[in-house]
Amino acid sequence: MIRLLALRELRSLFAMPSTWFALAALQFIFAWFFLARLEAFLEIQPQLAQLANPPGVTITVAAPMFNTVALLLMMLVPVFTMRLIAEERRNQTFALLLSAPLSGYHIVLGKFFGLLVFLAALITGVPLMLYTLVLGTALDHGLLLSNLLGLLLLTASYVAVGLYLSALTSQPIAAAIGALAVLVGLWLADIGAAAEDSPWHFVSPLNHFQNFNAGLLDSGDAAFFVLFSAVFLLLAIRRIHNNRIYG
Amino acid sequence: MSGATPEITLSVRNLTRRFGNRQVIHDLSLELKRGEVLGLLGHNGAGKSTTLQMLTGCLLPNGGEIEICGIDLLRQPALAKAHIGYLPETPPLYRELSVNDYLTFAARLRGMKRGEAAAALAQAKQRCGLEAVGKEIIGTLSKGYQQRVGIAQAIIHSPDVIVLDEPTIGLDPSQIRDIRNLIRELGNRSSVIFSTHLLGEVESVCDRVHIMQEGRLIYDDTTAALASYGGEPGHLEENFIRLTETQR
């Protein structure tokens, strides 16, 4: 059932021209960043080569690029998640799901995984671009892999927040702005908190991405993403149940 | 499904519902047998749609029991809902999908296997007159066709109880006639409950009529009995108005 709902979500996404436009525009932006980073690397490479232990191309091109994509996704994911439930409410298609033999968790997980698969496809362009560098040099596969894994977990936590905000309203725009406010708010609180042990560092998803970005696989960070997503998904399931109570 | 007494497919007892402090459904009970078509009549705001939403599990009642084919809807929602087909007031259509994709999704959503869904799709399209538009995108269809797609999704899994909320609203006369014929045909095998405020519809389609007024059931009898209510045979409309006015 979850798979059926996820596939429906994907089918609807790809049936809309705006999705294809977004895909194309974002690949263009990713490519722009990639080429700009690569050009900067080539310019300073002669100086880097004089260092005793020079940083490689992966850490100077790939890692900053993943970091930029992580920041971009923070702004982009709310645009994709806003439709998930709010638009079903507005178009009154939600009754189809509510009257079907499903429970709230099927609906929430179906939508969550459907959009996650789409976003995973969206960001595949990034590693593909980076892997073109294999033609001319050696890459640090471990660093790339940890970045990819981190980016996927980060995206999952963004989607969970967006999905919950979408479950709260029947206005997709309100859902988008709400999710953006939460995600940017967490990020700003994180970079604004001066104290090393401030709790804001702990609750910010982007902060937990930093270790992955540096190539460090920390099970604590991974657990944070899983818990963070689970909390918002549970809240969304609860909200859908309340839908039946309050109408 | 014994021959002598038709099985009861839908049984509702003492249903109540509040929105905030306002009680909108008062102690409503009704029963539906297999092969019966029940018309739910009433003015706008009488609580017809709210009742139908509760029968399909979209809205939880504050009190009372709902049984679909003997399964408690509130205790075992997933099992009970597999026997329901529901067309809400606004058809729940994903406008960006094609008719075939949408109806297949609707069938699979109700737990049909891939192979069964294909056969059910062909049958539902044939019954609702959608054969020619299977590949069209729903958003590009006319309102009449969209309404038919809405009915098709409610019947594709051959449910025992079919719940239709104002199925003929906004259709032209020939489409209304087609839909009425379809409802009567559906009523041969399943139970159908539908809401309307068109009296002609009740007269031509229903076996029984329930009239709702301010959240209460004020009349429950056969269609023929309503037509001759108060000794004035043949005046369904006047009898309906008389009945709802005296209860005010």
Structural notes for this entry:
Chain A is mainly α and 247 residues long. Chain A has one domain (2-246). In chain A, 82% of the residues lie in helices and 0% in strands. Chain A is built from eleven helices and no strands. The longest helix of chain A is centred in the first third of the chain and has 33 residues, at 17-49. Chain A starts with a helix and ends with a helix. The model of chain A has no long low-confidence stretch (mean pLDDT 92). By secondary structure, chain B is of the alpha/beta class. Chain B has two domains: 1-83 and 160-248, 3-Layer(aba) Sandwich (Rossmann fold), CATH 3.40.50; 92-158, no CATH class. Chain B contains nine helices and ten strands. In chain B, the strands form two sheets. In chain B, strands 6-7-8-3-9-10 form a six-stranded mixed β-sheet, with helices on both faces. A four-stranded antiparallel β-sheet of chain B has the order 2-1-4-5. In chain B, strand 1 and strand 2 form a beta hairpin. In chain B, helix 3 packs across helix 4 and helix 3 runs parallel beside helix 5. The relative contact order of chain B is 0.17. The model of chain B has no long low-confidence stretch (mean pLDDT 87). The chains are: A mainly alpha (247), B alpha/beta (248). Chains A and B meet through helix 1 and helix 5 of A and helix 2 and helix 3 of B.
